[in-house]
Amino acid sequence: MALSFTLEAQDSSTAARAGRLETAHGDVLTPAFMPVGTAGSVKTLSPDEVAAAGADIVLANTYHLYLRPGVEVVRAMGGLHRFMGWPNAILTDSGGFQVMSLAELRQVSDRGVEFRSHLDGSRHVIGPEEAIRIQDGLGADIAMSFDELVELPAEPDVVREAVDRTLLWARRGLAERERLRAEGRGAMALFGINQGGTDARERARSFDTLGQMPFDGYALGGLWVGERRSLSLEMVEHDCARFPADKPRYLMGVGHPRDMIEAVARGVDMMDCVLPTRNARRGTVFISTGRLVVKNAAYATDERPLDPDCDCPTCRRFSRAYIRHLFATNELLGPRLASVHAVHHAVRLMRDARAAVVTGGFEAFRRRFTERFGSGETLTPSREPDRHGRPAAMTGTRKESHHDVE
Ligand SMILES: [Zn+2]
């Protein structure tokens, strides 16, 4: 079944849009945040908790599931949905990014990537055809084309070569899905990935070819990998202006609330990132007024919920003081409660953005969000601001690789 995507509303003053993706496992409302379930689990959360947070799609990592438990095990267990007890939509990444970032002794050629497993050193080859077969075997609703990502900054000819190889692989991935379909398999939707780093001309050249291929959606790849945020946003604007309006657009690896809202304003429909949940497990969460480091001693007797504006099960019931105590004593409930909030917050942020697009108030929503997120209000009870005048809980950087698996 091909993916059906319907645009339901478009904002008049920005490129923001509200849509609906129909999959074999239910509808996905866009803009959507996709929680990351690397090895078939959104860490610490049950599928019911992920669904209760409002998520109608999760992302799973092909590379990890391919190595453990292996595609044949997942297939024998009735596919990934059944295996992990998740009834809603699943998008799998192609494995390309993880092969490049995690595996050892990689050798990249047109054939694919030869690598050693980071787990046991075993030797494997994944190319565009294997990536499609693995994702089909897992039972993904949306699969991603195998791509080559270059680390930035990179020389122009390195970027160009990676774009050319990604286009070659895109064509071969589509052909492999056709071959599977002739055998009665390959029902999944397939997205192509636009590359070209932060070179606008290279990204345009990439899409000149990619856009001619019959993908069900298009992804913006190779961004948020260490370059300037403003430059990334420029590339998002640039890509979205070229992508067809009637197909979903997926920005890979973005999960900072500010980036998410700005990406939506530029026409992005889907996003995923480990940042909210990985931070949560370490005791830091995004709330409506910024970034809260709940394990901070400043919250030892703070009766307020993590986010006074949040109605998630964690915020309805527990104080910052209690959650801080859980982290201080290494209780497993701490990362769990923080993760419940983190997924709820990211999913709801996109739902609120969607509602604002539908009612024609996205620009006002974006302004309100930005002012409030930057306000830092409620972040500290009575602590002295640090020497830069910032409240203590606002300090810390977000220098994290957003693309890493959990
Ligand atoms: Zn909450």
Short description:
The chain has 406 residues and is an alpha/beta fold.
What amount of the residues lies in strands? 15-25%
Determine the N-to-C terminus distance. Answer: 31 Å
Spatial strand arrangement across the major sheet: 4-15-14-13-12-11
Number of strands: 17
Please bin the fraction of helical residues: 25-40%
How many H/I helices? Answer: 15
Ligand names: zinc ion
Which structural class is indicated by helix and strand composition?
alpha/beta
Low-confidence stretches: 389-400
| Largest sheet features | 6 strands, parallel
Average residue pLDDT: 93
Q: Which descriptor suits the 3D outline?
A: globular
State the assembly state of the protein chains: single chain
What is the radius of gyration? 21 Å
List the helices and strands and how they pair.
Elements: E1 4-10, E2 17-23, E3 26-30, E4 32-34, E5 36-37, H1 47-52, E6 57-60, H2 62-67, H3 71-76, H4 80-84, E7 89-92, H5 96-101, E8 104-109, E9 112-116, E10 123-126, H6 128-138, E11 142-144, H7 156-182, E12 189-194, H8 200-210, E13 217-220, H9 229-242, E14 249-251, H10 257-265, E15 270-272, H11 275-281, E16 284-287, E17 290-293, H12 313-317, H13 320-328, H14 333-358, H15 362-373
Parallel strand pairs: 4-15, 5-6, 6-7, 11-12, 12-13, 13-14, 14-15
Antiparallel strand pairs: 1-2, 2-3, 8-9, 9-10, 16-17
Helix pairs in contact: 6-7, 7-8, 8-9, 10-14, 10-15, 11-14, 13-14, 14-15
The structure holds zinc ion (ZN).
